[in-house]
Design goal:
Blueprint: H1 3-17, H2 24-27, H3 33-49, E1 54-60, H4 64-70, E2 76-81, E3 101-110, H5 121-127, E4 128-138, H6 149-154, E5 159-164, E6 180-185, E7 188-194, H7 202-214, E8 225-227, E9 235-236, E10 242-249, E11 252-260
Parallel strand pairs: 1-8
Antiparallel strand pairs: 1-2, 3-4, 3-8, 3-9, 4-5, 6-7, 6-10, 10-11
Helix pairs in contact: 1-3, 5-7
């Protein structure tokens, strides 16, 4: 069986059975980044056969804080499906989450497609309908989060589910690198960060994604939700935890997002 099918099947079974497997790079040290993306696409194809629908993409490991926590040193990307989008409380059992961690991010919703190479941050802003505060809940089907870059890429960039806040903000009116996020956990201050933690500018991170996909003949499409990467370190989450993020600029608060684990 080809490598992509072998490990795509293993990750799919782990996802559905809510279990973890040994790091792929331990099972086969010869695996490359290209192999990992092929595995990710195989995993996605199995989810689509179950009726899930792609609604966007996510960028992972964009900030130094997250790279240091996970021991990876380059960005990656994965796919978002409608099954991953949570509008209310996050039911850990219903979404088969294993070891979830919360990331405070900025979500971009596109009104026009972006086709790399050559996409700039300015192109991203022109193609964006709105941005919003967002929590991505990452999760790993790899034992104890012992991931190398190959493992997280293959595992759909360690994506679990995501929640988008209600505010709809015009990015052209905002200084994205200097947007501030403050995160609380169960009412207590947890972390804070700025937009420039994500490759210097969240729009630049989206441009990186468009250009990376373009090299493989793929695009970011109108209507896509793009999660641009965490502004703060990942925080472990468990049933009963409540995370809240507030996105602000110099004028004051712009919007909030809540991740409530049931």
């Amino acid at each position: 069986m080809p490598v992509a099918e072998t490990y795509g099947s293993a990750l799919y079974e782990a996802l559905r059975a809510r279990k973890t497997i040994r790091p792929l790079i331990e099972q086969d040290p010869s695996l490359t980044i290209d192999d990992a993306y092929a595995i990710s696409l195989d995993l996605l194809s199995r989810r689509l056969k179950d009726g899930e629908r792609v609604v966007g993409k996510k960028i992972g490991a964009t900030s130094k804080a997250v790279q240091d926590m996970l021991g990876v040193h380059q960005p990656d990307f994965g796919f978002l499906t409608d099954w991953m989008h949570i509008e209310g409380d996050i039911d850990i059992d219903d979404r088969a989450l294993i070891a979830p961690r919360a990331e405070a991010e900025i979500a971009f919703i596109l009104k026009r497609s972006l086709n790399g190479p050559g996409v700039t941050a300015a192109d991203v802003l022109a193609a964006t309908e709105w941005i919003a505060p967002c929590f991505e809940i990452v999760d790993s089907r790899i034992d104890d989060w012992q991931i190398a870059i190959v493992d997280t890429v293959a595992d759909n960039a360690s994506c679990g589910v995501f929640v988008i806040g209600k505010e709809r903000l015009d990015p052209a009116r905002l200084d994205l690198p200097n947007l501030h996020v403050a995160v609380t956990k169960n009412g207590e201050p947890l972390s804070e960060g700025y937009g420039h933690a994500v490759q210097g500018d969240p729009a630049q991170a989206v441009a990186w994604l468009a250009n990376t996909l373009g090299a493989h003949g793929a695009t970011l499409d109108a209507g896509d939700v793009i999660l641009s990467g965490s502004l703060v370190p990942l925080a472990p989450a468990a049933r009963g935890d409540r995370f809240e993020m507030t996105l602000s600029d110099a004028s004051g608060p712009l919007g909030t997002c809540v991740a409530n684990f049931a």
